[in-house]
């Protein structure tokens, strides 16, 4: 609990998976809704929304994860330098 209140650990990477699934569900619903809606643009527009939404959600979430992985690795490097400077 101390990690959470003093920002020693990141909370956002744990939430990104949940956000990804929400975005995936939204992309599927909007794509399928557009496919079978008479004024939504038709089947191919819905398929485009479906494909672009799924790929876009994945790329966006992966980029966020990469940022947090960079942070973790930089923290490890800083910790190693702290240990070696104390010797």
Describe the 3D structure.
The protein has 87 residues and is an all-alpha fold. The chain has one domain (2-78). It is 83% helix and 0% strand. It contains 3 helices and no strands. The chain has helices at 2-5, 12-35, 43-86. The longest helix has 44 residues, at 43-86. It is elongated and about 70 Å long. The two termini are 31 Å apart. The mean pLDDT is 87.
What descriptors fit this protein?
0% strand, 87 residues, mainly alpha
Structural topology:
Blueprint (H helix, E strand, L loop, with lengths): L1 H4 L6 H24 L7 H44 L1
Helix pairs in contact: 2-3
Short description:
This protein is an all-alpha fold and 87 residues long. The chain has three helices and no strands.
Number of domains: 1
Oligomer class? single chain
Structural class: mainly alpha
* Low-pLDDT residue intervals, each spanning 5 or more residues: none
Q: Sketch the major β-sheet.
A: none
Determine the N-to-C terminus distance: 31 Å
Rg, please?
A: 20 Å
Overall residue-averaged pLDDT value:
87
């Amino acid at each position: 609990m101390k990690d959470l209140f003093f920002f020693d650990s990141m909370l956002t990477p744990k939430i990104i998976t949940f956000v990804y699934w929400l975005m995936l569900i939204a992309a599927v619903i909007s794509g399928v809704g557009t496919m079978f809606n008479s004024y939504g643009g038709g089947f191919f527009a819905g398929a485009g929304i479906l494909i672009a939404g799924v790929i876009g959600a994945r790329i966006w979430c992966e980029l966020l994860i990469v940022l947090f992985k960079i942070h973790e690795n930089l923290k490890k490097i800083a910790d190693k330098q702290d240990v070696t400077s104390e010797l």
